[in-house]
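Lab notebook page, bench 4
Experiment: in silico fold of construct C2
Operator: M.H.
Input chain length: 51 residues
Purpose: comparison with the prior construct
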Amino acid sequence: MTFILFLIIFFCFQSFVLFCCVAAGNDPASQLISDQEQMDYIKTWMEKHER
């Protein structure tokens, strides 16, 4: 009985963490910043490895 209760609590906590991760990356402003950072990284990488 205790093991089943532990599993239920564990999976509820995992669901909460997953929900927070999904909600955190869902706004357009943070996506725009992330896209810009990726483009800057790619540009820097291309300049470094250009021959």
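Observations: The chain has a mean pLDDT of 88. Helices lie at 2-24, 28-49.
Next step: discuss at group meeting.
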